[in-house]
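Recap quiz, item 2
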Amino acid sequence: MAVQVFVPVQKFRFLPAVAASVAKYNSPTVQVAGRLARVPALAGVVCDATLTAAADPDILAAGDIASWPHPLAGAELVRVEHWTVAAEHGMLAGRNALLDPAERRPHELPPYFWSDQYEVKIQAVGFPARAHQLEILESSPDGDRFVAAGARDGRLVGVIAFNAAKRLAWYRRQLAGRPGYDEVCDAVLADEKALGARVAAR
Ligand SMILES: Cc1cc2nc3c(=O)[nH]c(=O)nc-3n(C[C@H](O)[C@H](O)[C@H](O)COP(=O)(O)OP(=O)(O)OC[C@H]3O[C@@H](n4cnc5c(N)ncnc54)[C@H](O)[C@@H]3O)c2cc1C
């Protein structure tokens, strides 16, 4: 998926996705390419929370190329290669490009990813790879559907679901509130809509 944003405003240069794709009506793309060459790119394009390149406030990055501090990752820089994040980034970066830097909004949504592998729908939200501890919190009796949750420093940081799409929305909302992990476990235990008994021992 290529994110394309066209900003017909003279002062802006917009960086969509992997490449600098610029739609200034009266400026050559090469001008932005030259500025882009001065933006450090080892970790992608390093941005602030508003997807504005740290090296140049007139350049915004979106999608796989963007590296930005995420609150769910303790404000550490993250780079996420997910379709949905690229789409969210494109919309936010496009809006932010129209604003002065001080008025730009951050990207704080928990990253979401899905992949259909034959009969299994795998979904992940947040940053499960950053978890220090990962355990299955709920499972169908046959074990075909389950949700595993990841914790770090006592807080929920990521969730992985196998064939449990209906349950993922609940965890997604939880993640947005940066809850304590024990709090989430207790809520799952009390939730009648949960898939079934918690599997992992604490
Ligand atoms: C095999 C594969 C499977 C994947 N499966 C999943 C999945 O199941 N779920 C999921 O969420 N994500 C998946 N992803 C990741 C997902 O595809 C990416 O996160 C997403 O496409 C990133 O969007 P983007 O716009 O940042 O970059 P891209 O989609 O890579 O778009 C970048 C665009 O820039 C163009 N471009 C590059 N260089 C230049 C240049 N110099 N000048 C002009 N244009 C240029 C490219 O042609 C491309 O069109 C998968 C990726 C791969 C490779």
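Residues 112 and 125 are 4 Å apart (CA to CA).
The two ends are 41 Å apart (CA to CA).
End of item.
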